[in-house]
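Hi again,

Forgot to attach this to my earlier email, sorry! This is the prediction with adenosine-5'-triphosphate bound. I've pasted everything inline since the attachment limit keeps bouncing my files.
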Amino acid sequence: MKQHAYQGLHYVKPSPQIRHVVAVASGKGGVGKSTVAVNLAVALAQQGFKVGLMDADVYGPSIPKMTGTEHEQPAVQVIAGVERIIPVERYGVKWMSMGYFSAADRPLIWRGPMATNALRQLLNQVEWGALDVLLIDLPPGTGDIHVSMIQEVKLSGAVVVSTPQAVALTDVEKGVHMFLNDKVNVPVLGLVENMAWFTPEELPQNKYYIFGKEGAARLAEKLHLPLLAQLPIVQSICESGDEGTPIALKENAAGAAFLALADKIAATLQ
Ligand SMILES: Nc1ncnc2c1ncn2[C@@H]1O[C@H](COP(=O)(O)OP(=O)(O)OP(=O)(O)O)[C@@H](O)[C@H]1O
Ligand SMILES: [Mg+2]
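Structure tokens for the complex follow:
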């Protein structure tokens, strides 16, 4: 992207063609936000919804890799005299990420405001078309990018992902309050407890509570929020993310868990 293009920014308003914008967030890193976001997007698309996903992680975009689209180049089209970026389509979902514009093995060295501006511009310039849901995969934390996204994009709600361990829960609680805070007032649709237990593929009945038991379930209760899903640690969830073929495409227990999550989110939004 050209440097001069950062000027003349507008506040991002979701296009009137987008019915719901939903953030997938967590105060904590590495808990599975991107995994949940990608699989939720694919599961919603399988149920017939028109879905887009915006990767708001400028410093560590994982959407291109997780969707097997890392070698794609979004097209640019001039529409009504304005350059518009066409999202990459795969698995019935429209994907957009800063990762499509930067080399995967080079870090982006940007200060906060620059990253925020670049993301704002990207979101503004994408030709999403008509969507039922645009998911936003937020980076970890509660920093600059989050604050501007939350203030400038009209969100229908947020899905907050946590693992069960105590060390994640404190940060996740902060993440929840970032949305519920009365200056922002974004409804939290519920919590997703990811890595809730480990189930070996060959022993599908066994559950090992590696990161503690029900931590996120208890947090949901404390915050009076729905617990939308408890997703186990399954080797194939990680492998399919690495391979770029989301598990939600597969007919197995883990795939079904994401379809059930998509059902709940669709019901909540309607
Ligand atoms: N339920 C699961 N079972 C097995 N592996 C998982 C599961 N959920 C996530 N993972 C793996 O854990 C790693 C971290 O997941 P992911 O990148 O989705 O987390 P994140 O919260 O988006 O991280 P970041 O904070 O860096 O954005 C990935 O390798 C992913 O494949
Ligand atoms: Mg991520």
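The chain has one domain: 13-269. Helices lie at 33-46, 63-66, 112-125, 144-152, 166-180, 215-222, 235-243, 253-269.

That should be everything now.

G.
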